[in-house]
Amino acid sequence: MTLYLKYRPKNLDELDLTDVSDSLKKIMKSGNIPHAFLFAGPKGTGKTSAARILAKIINCEDLKNGIPCEKCQQCVSITKGNNLDVIEMDAASHRGIDDVRTLRDAVKLSPVRAKKKIYIIDEAHMLTTEASNALLKTLEEPPEHVVFILATTNPEKLIGTIKSRSTFIPFRKATDEEISRSLKRVVIGEKVKVKDEALTVIAKAADGAFRDAIKILDQLIAEEKELSEEFLQEFLFKNKSFDTDRFIELLAARDTKNLIIEIGKLGPSGVTTEIFLDSLMAKLRGELLATVGVGETKFKLSQPDLVQLIELFTEASAKITDSPIEELPLEIAIIRWSQTTNGGSSSARLEINSPVAKGATGHDNSRSETFIDRDLAHTEISNAHSQATTISGEGASDLLDKIGEINDEIWKNILSSVKPINASIEALLRSSRPISYDGKVLTLGVFYNFHKEQLEDTAHRRILEDVIAKVLNSPAKVICTIVEPPPKKIVEEAKAEPVLTEGKDADIIKAAKEIFGN
């Protein structure tokens, strides 16, 4: 058994977040147990452990002073996870309305042996809107024999009506002192000799998560690593494979080869990709805050670069669990980042006296040249664009001479450039129209909310912005807003595809099938 499971808190006194422990003690002591709790806070802070403790307190057959006996059938079965009346549901994998309907039917049944049925719904924010609304009805009028405990790392994603009907218990990142206290309980139980200073080093590496701290300690003990403060500082923070400063310097230089080599060193050095990413993100966040005056910058990265890196690594972090190779999402993020390097197909030099540049400025500039960077998410864009109809210099000049309007010719060019890359995006764009363009931001009027959500998807938006930058010869951010659809009509041009179409468009139907499935 892993140390985290072996030393999981068994009662409220053992909960390491004292403010959470005190709140729950007061609620239990009052005797007025709410029908629904909402535990919200970062990962690894004890939300599920607290939920199981509450289940024991409510159903213990020999409760004394609010402390479960840990010996009765209810306590033992809850600890083992096989209690028939304590149901744990992972909303990440059971998030649909059918799952909630099944739950609603089961809620009506009386407990098998316990006093109350306890439903612990983990990652509750993953429930679909329909499922959340279905659950809401049960939360509003629950049977007397049922208690719901919702746990989430993203409470802001829950619908407001669910939050308003639950007793909110906030969990927070643990302090180094609280994590050290938790680790001390483990080392005493395992009879491991380690100084308090060394436990503090592990606590800092865990970044506020009890679970991560115990996992690090478990790994160190299993591998028989030295548990001195000096070794842990070197192993967790200064080890070459974990040198985040050097890694960020390589990012700034877009040194793809050495970045990949550094990632390859993580596993053999006993450093998980997850822990490395946590440390890296903390550094990048500090740099980002420094760009707005909070702290001092250390690396040669601009604010847009830092934002892009954080987005790429956040996306990579979310994919690690499901990846067949742990390092793969991080390696893909590095390669995508490296594609934004100056030179090649990912950027272009534009002479200021060219027709496009003159149109953008309205006059000749004394500077001989300017550089326009393009953050391309897919290298296929260059190839696809070369096959599409290219806009003439005069056409681009016409656009930029009267900024605020994108004519049909330019819009058609955008559509034809997108289609070879992602036909679904092009089909969605058919139910939208350009409203304004100020040289930096292109505002699209979208006719339907679902289409707006799909176009605002991070991957879709990145592709669209890359294509628009290619067509307009200038980086552009896309913003979508809902507008009234125009009167039903089909615009046809000889030897050209329609600019805008409404109704039963085959491409839109195809896009819907790709998104929802057949």
Structural class of the helices, strands and pairings? alpha/beta
Mean of all residue-level pLDDT scores: 78
Q: What's the shape?
A: flat
What is the count of DSSP helices, taking H or I runs of 4+ residues?
24
Write down the CATH topology of the largest domain: Rossmann fold
The N- and C-terminal alpha carbons lie at a distance of 44 Å
Walk across the major sheet and give the strand order: 2-3-4-1-5
Say which CATH homologous superfamily of the largest domain is assigned: P-loop containing nucleotide triphosphate hydrolases
Question: What percent of residues adopt helix (DSSP H or I)?
Answer: 40-55%
Largest sheet: 5 strands, parallel
CATH class of the largest domain equals Alpha Beta
Task: Specify the CATH architecture of the largest domain.
Answer: 3-Layer(aba) Sandwich
| Rg calc | 28 Å
Question: Strand share of the residues?
Answer: 5-15%
Number of domains: 4
Contiguous runs where pLDDT drops below 50 for at least 5 residues: 341-404, 489-504
Strand tally: 10
